[in-house]
Amino acid sequence: MNSVMITGCSSGFGLETARFFFEKGWHVIATMRKPDNSLFPTSDRLSILELDVTDQNSIDRAVREAGPIDVLINNAGIGYMSPFENTSDEIVHKLFDTNTFGTFNMVRAVVPQMRGRKAGTIINLSSSTTLKPLTFMSTYTASKAAVTAYTECLALELAPLGIRTVLIIPGLSPSTSFGKNAGDKISKSGEPADEYKALMEKVQSEFQREMLVQELTKPEDVVNAIWQAVTDSNCPVCLPAGPDAVALSQ
Questions:
Q1: Into which family does the record put it (predicted)?
Q2: Which end of the chain is more exposed for a tag (fewer CB within 10 A), N or C?
Q3: What element of type H or E holds 18?
Q4: pLDDT of 177 over the 90 cut
Q5: CA 53, CA 224: separation in Å to the nearest integer?
Q6: pLDDT in tens, 99-113
């Protein structure tokens, strides 16, 4: 039976992906910082493990408990929107620790067993903000742009070892908890300077309007892209997910 380990399964894309693979008959290792057994049915094909991608001991323990992993999906991430001038070093480090170094550390923990079997698939999630820059998203976008560049290079070095690596680039999605997961990870930024306030109001208004009129990414778009990446050995290294991401990538 194929096994898949997914980070960040408490909500959003991670939760929907875990449910999808479970319905397909896979052994699913659903990980999250605060395990919630109520999210999934009880089954011997489902393991719910505590995992904080910013904690190496937590990663090592979860990978050890998971056993053989055929597919790793690095989905865990946090969002943040603020003028960079107001973005403290603490915030910068928290974003990169989760979105970037969390992905790095998960790959480093799982690759040895895949290399030993000369088989495996690694899926990393980036963001369409790397395709179209958005105001006040500089730090978040930088953390995801690093994942994009890293994955494209990683695919080249792992392919000769029998390990496939694919980057999923989701578009904007109103159904995800973007930013909410940062709650206990990031302290609030200071009050922005007056020069930023009018622009922030304008940007937020335009963003809300786009969310209402534009065809955005649905969870199933991301799940389907991940499924394609896992099941189609000829899929490209970079897969946009969602109509807005597809449009930006062309």
A1: Belongs to the short-chain dehydrogenases/reductases (SDR) family.
A2: C
A3: helix 12-23
A4: no
A5: 24
A6: 999 999 999 999 999
